[in-house]
Amino acid sequence: MSRLERRCRRLLRAYPQAYRAGRGEEILGTLLDAAPGDRNWPPARDARSLITGGLRVRAARNRQLSLAANLRLAALLAAALWLGDSVAAYLDFAIHPGNYYQLPALSSALFAACALGSCLAIASAWLWRRSVTVSLALAVTAASALACSQAPYLGDLLSDVRLIGPPLALAALAAGKDRPPRSWLWMPAAFLIASLPALFANAFGQFVPYIFPLFPVVFFGTLGIALLWLVTDARPAIAFGLYVEVLYVLASLAITRFSDALTAGQGVIIALLAAVLAGAALRIRPRATT
Amino acid sequence: MREPTYFVLACLLQGPLHGYAIIKKAEELSGGRVRLATGTLYTALDRLTTEGYVQLVSDEIVSGRVRRSYGLTDPGAAALRAEAVRMAEAAQLVTGDSAPARSARLARSARLARAGRKARTA
Question: With a cut of 0.90, is the ipTM above it?
């Protein structure tokens, strides 16, 4: 294989694998025919056109589903991110029951089961059958509801939403026909892993993964990647936005427990995030190819 | 219709061609002005195939690689002619033309476009 061919093959990776399987050799043949015999590098304009062509094919492929189906997949990823985030909270209740007014042993055991079940539910949304995901997520929902009911101090509505909401959302969203792309699975996995170190540093009875260094790195790294991904796929960015919106609304409501209502600033931020999300949703509408 | 698309269709007017032959022919037809990049060519071919203007005619193996030839369909030929007439009309606005001749051409352009649509839906 010549250097030129090797470099052309590298450029062809801009196209999705399925497209390359059907068209790759044909495009490669045209590239090699068009290049003078002594060339080692493909011409810059060919390189540019292959990269933009590949990105265009990827973008078109990601818009093939209906708007509703794409929004469901984005919401499913957001629910998986939220649940990945909650796994660390479940584990914290299981590992440090003494930090929470001596959490009952049953609740600790149930939260440990919730953590394991959540990991399996997240993985199954990408890898296994829909029915498995729904069953696992519903089982986690039931277990977390039971664990909350056994621990009276956890029994306010906001705590319940934070612990029961993620698996319930995953169960509701996993029931649809289309499966999320496997290339998204690293996102909930990264959030889950990033929130774990906080478990070992939680000596104060206050589990706040956001203040430990790994979490902000993963958070902003994922945000950056999701924004770059907008070129070919807006759904991860929408999912990330939804996740942030839910977390921000919950955090704001938590603060209002100590004050009267949401402040104007909080309301503006929530409305702005919702507007950005609505704008991003327009990017995933199926479009004509002309 | 964008210029690269127009020239891809124009290249196929005289018969089916494979990718590299289309690039060479487009350069020749445009007097060296239109030099199709490989990615641009295949993006246009994908779109034109989806729209039914171009079809795969033959598939052969050359030096161990697949080489496909593409041909113009009837709707593709009609769309190309309609575009040519439209561009000629637009050119006449600048180069000057009589009103009756212009209306006759406009009517012809509309006829061709209708025929193209009919052929496409058939």
Answer: no
